[in-house]
């Protein structure tokens, strides 16, 4: 799969949503997630990682080494047990089986190499802390969800049709955010990459996923979602040459019109290479 990466990376990802619900909360009637104290919109890291997984699955399909462990309808214990059926695992001494199974899972599944996984729920394959971690995304400004009534000109059963005397209408609700610009922060650890085998090829695929994942994730509920900016800070060492928060604070975002209804309603200051701390380079993708 290639040699593990040798550099630390930090990144800022900006994406927006227009007339859509970027990440509904199933415990709140699928309302868009909101910080109740500030009114800022939220999108979970799990939601964003799901989009990365879906993109890799779409692009790589059945290519060896790019399987997806956490996917729709997967039975995780079956996949973990499969690792213990490999000759490289079952022929090991009992005390070495877990490490051998963990290595097999990292080699086979891209999302384990990238995000890590807990694989101790079946035959033990250990726990993996992935080199790539992301925060919740938070909107730059407050968002106010809008609620709409929708009508379906059909019913599900004969009983419903008889009750409505043939009117055959089903009422529902739909929630959207008129516009929101969201920001998430990410971290890529070279020491953790050594443990999972996360390589430069894996990293380039991850950048591709961040740049393109929204183009392959459209739905009626999500409206128009688009990646807007990806700013990557590359350190020239494994452990890094500057703190992540110092680099993140160099990216300035401000609204030039409120309420914002378009990406053009925001101004950005992206640091230049001359402003970077020693040993750090900035790449805008």
Kindly describe this structure.
There is one protein chain. By secondary structure, the chain is an alpha+beta fold. The protein has one domain (9-284). The chain is 27% helix and 30% strand. The strands form 4 sheets. Strands 1, 4, 7, 8, 9, 10, 11 and 14 form an 8-stranded antiparallel β-sheet that branches. A hairpin with a 5-residue loop joins strand 2 and strand 3 (31-32). Helix 1 (45-60) crosses helix 8 (200-212). The protein is flat. It starts with 8 loop residues before the first strand and ends with a strand. The mean pLDDT is 94.
SSE layout and pairing:
Layout: E1 9-20, E2 24-25, E3 31-32, E4 40-43, H1 45-60, H2 76-84, H3 87-90, H4 97-108, H5 110-115, E5 116-118, E6 127-129, E7 132-134, E8 137-142, E9 146-152, H6 158-163, E10 170-188, H7 190-196, H8 200-212, E11 224-235, H9 244-248, E12 252-255, E13 266-269, E14 280-284
Antiparallel strand pairs: 1-10, 1-11, 2-3, 4-8, 5-6, 7-10, 8-10, 9-10, 11-14, 12-13
Helix pairs in contact: 1-8
Question: Brief overview, please?
Answer:
By secondary structure, the chain is of the alpha+beta class. Helices cover 27% and strands 30% of the residues. It is flat, with a radius of gyration of 22 Å.
Overall number of domains: 1
Alpha-beta classification: alpha+beta
Number of strands: 14
Q: DSSP strand (E) fraction?
A: 25-35%
Overall shape: it is flat
- DSSP summary: helix tally: 9
Over all CA atoms, what is the radius of gyration?
22 Å
- End-to-end Cα distance, whole Å, is 24 Å
Q: Could you list the spans in which at least 5 consecutive residues all have pLDDT below 50?
A: none
Summarize the biggest pleated sheet. Answer: 8 strands, antiparallel
Let me know the average pLDDT: 94
Helix/strand order, N-terminal first: EEEEHHHHHEEEEEHEHHEHEEE
Helicity range: 25-40%
